[in-house]
Specification:
The chain is 22% helix and 43% strand. With 197 residues, the chain is of the alpha+beta class. The strands form 2 sheets. Strands 1, 2, 3, 4, 5, 6, 7, 10, 11, 12, 13 and 14 form a 12-stranded mixed β-sheet that branches. Strands 8-9 form a two-stranded antiparallel ribbon. The longest helix is centred in the N-terminal third of the chain and has 27 residues.
């Protein structure tokens, strides 16, 4: 009978050790979701780094009434300039000369998970247009100009903490696609108009 109980004690200890090892593996394992956008969206209590997409074709409207079109390949916060590319040629325009950049309907957009959509095509926005004003230019970073992948850092006073939570909630399964960027070169800020797709 004593051997029987000793066997049970050993079995229980072995199972407890195995469970502890599995629990440790689960705790230390990176948790992933099927949603690539959420992995790209980092939030602190008062700050959000939000992945946004820029459609391939943009029209740069200048303050003098002229315009130029192409793919936005750089927004240089220090040099206060925007670069666009079309047909292999690059043009750099000072931000002080730009009224706004409007992204065309019917243009190809890459989501942060690599999936392509046509803006204004079969896939419709899932919410209304949102406007984020007064974003410091250096809080906008173009990560991949070929696919129009950018990150915008949002925090008060641009958006409230409650708005940050709402934006994060939307970004869990949707991609914000930029419709328009307006520049205020004197204050070194931008305004972004975007819709979640």
């Amino acid at each position: 009978m004593k051997a029987f109980f000793q066997g049970w004690v050993v079995a229980i200890l072995v199972m407890a050790a195995a469970l502890a090892g599995n629990l440790q593996a689960v705790i230390s394992k990176d948790v992933t979701t099927g949603n690539f956008l959420l992995a790209q969206t980092q939030i602190k209590a008062d700050e959000l780094e939000l992945a946004v997409a820029l459609p391939e074709l943009a029209e740069v409207m200048l303050k003098k009434g002229e315009s130029s079109s192409g793919r936005v390949i750089e927004i240089d916060a220090q040099g206060q300039a925007l670069s666009i590319q079309r047909s292999g040629k690059t043009a750099t325009i000072p931000l002080s000369q730009i009224q706004k950049v409007v992204f065309k309907n019917g243009a190809l957009v890459y989501r942060s998970n690599g999936r392509q959509i046509i803006r204004g095509g079969g896939e419709r926005p899932t919410s209304k247009l949102v406007t984020w004003s007064g974003i410091p230019i250096n809080n906008f970073t173009l990560k991949n100009s070929t696919q129009g992948q950018a990150v915008v850092k949002l925090k008060p006073p641009v958006v409230s903490t409650a708005q940050l939570q709402g934006i994060q909630s939307v970004a869990r399964n949707r991609q914000y696609v930029v419709d328009e960027i307006q520049f205020n070169s004197q204050q070194r800020t931008i305004t972004i108009l975007a819709k979640p797709y």
